[in-house]
Design a protein that fits this description.
Helices cover 51% and strands 11% of the residues. The chain has 125 residues and is of the alpha+beta class. It has a domain at 42-124. Strands 1-3-2-4 form a 4-stranded mixed β-sheet.
C-alpha cells in the first residue's frame, strides 16, 4: 500500500487550482444548454417538402442533393435537413437575380450537352 505524501501549505494553491478545474469541467458537463443555444431542428425529407414555401417533388430534392444545390446530411441512409441551413439556403436562392438564374441554367445546359457530369457536393455524414 502506498503512503500518501503529506500536503504542505505551499501545495494548497496548486491543489485548489486542480480541484477548481475539475469542478468547472463537471459543471459544464451537467449544465443544461443556455436558452440562446437551441438544439438544431432537423427535418426528414417529407417534413422538408411540407416546410418549403413552394411545392416540390421528392425527385427534385434528390436531384438538388446530387447537384449539391441543397444542404443535407445522411443519417442511417436517410436524408435529413437542418432547418436553419434550409432557411439560409432559401434566402440565398431567392436572392438570385433572373439574369443569374438564366446564366446558371445556360451553363448547366452547356455542360450537359458536352457530356460533363456535375460534381457531387453538399453531402455530409
Amino acid at each position: 500500500m502506498e503512503q500518501e505524501t503529506p500536503i504542505t501549505f505551499n501545495d494548497v494553491p496548486a491543489i485548489l487550482g486542480t480541484i477548481n478545474q475539475r469542478l468547472s469541467r463537471i459543471e459544464r458537463t451537467i449544465q443544461p444548454p443556455s436558452p440562446d443555444k437551441q438544439p438544431r431542428k432537423m427535418m426528414t425529407l417529407d417534413q422538408l417538402l411540407d416546410y418549403l414555401p413552394y411545392r416540390v417533388k421528392k425527385e427534385t430534392i434528390y436531384k438538388w442533393r446530387y447537384l449539391g444545390k441543397i444542404p443535407f446530411y445522411k443519417q442511417g441512409g436517410n436524408l435529413i435537413f437542418d432547418q436553419d441551413e434550409i432557411d439560409a439556403w432559401l434566402t440565398s436562392e431567392q436572392g438570385k437575380t433572373e439574369l443569374q438564374m438564366i446564366d446558371a441554367a445556360q451553363q448547366y445546359a452547356a455542360r450537359a450537352s458536352a457530356g460533363i457530369k456535375p460534381a457531387r457536393k453538399g453531402g455530409r455524414k
